């Protein structure tokens, strides 16, 4: 039924999406059903223009989420297609010469109002962060069932687990994949005694062990080990983020790339670790189970709650902070 797009009265998916039946052999606004509502591009093999028909032809996912909008708690049940599956259809490009190169890449989600939000590829990947974001096209909440309202749709990105709704991009029009512009190379491997924080910060700062130990100390249990160090969010705010004064939630379009001495890289979005949004407790560890990291260097990025620990970068040499914009900067 979905793929053949035959108008069989009010039983079609199109009617469910558009709401109601009209005369003339099909629902009103059927051109909106088959016209593109979302563009997927950037570093992908198959750029695409996605319509509501395309979304409806994919496996339907129902997702109930709770978040604060302003100071008001809300619960919504959305119906849509997996955002990750749409990226998979497009084919995310990666550099085969770099180990886990996908983990240094990010997705920029853009709405018609100009809002831009970063999700890293590692955050979304089922193998790593496994954030089950949707491109939602219907809602069944508070007794309402039907297409998204004018303030949200026709499609909306979801960010399940976030505290507030800043990364629920309404009126979503674009998903662009980019390679990070990180410039710090590896140094051939080996134990790194320090790392530098640079990029969109007030001034570059280099941290050695003593400088890290002077910051507030936290611990995280990862598997069978307990890591101790400094919250990545705290570290970035100690250094000072250079943020857009005009953006309502400037951290949501920012991300960091951590680089190890061997050149291994992984990206983390600031929205993912901001306590107001993703609230993921990533840390820069300098101890494991009460002892130094030894072969992992003076400091290691630890991202908790992952399926696999591919975004945990040992022997840190650099943390570069970026503001994403359409075009890949």
UniProtKB/TrEMBL annotation:
Residues 220-322 form the Oxidoreductase molybdopterin-binding domain. Pfam families: Oxidored_molyb (PF00174). PROSITE patterns: PROKAR_LIPOPROTEIN. It comes from the Bacteria. This is Molybdopterin-dependent oxidoreductase. It comes from Variovorax rhizosphaerae.
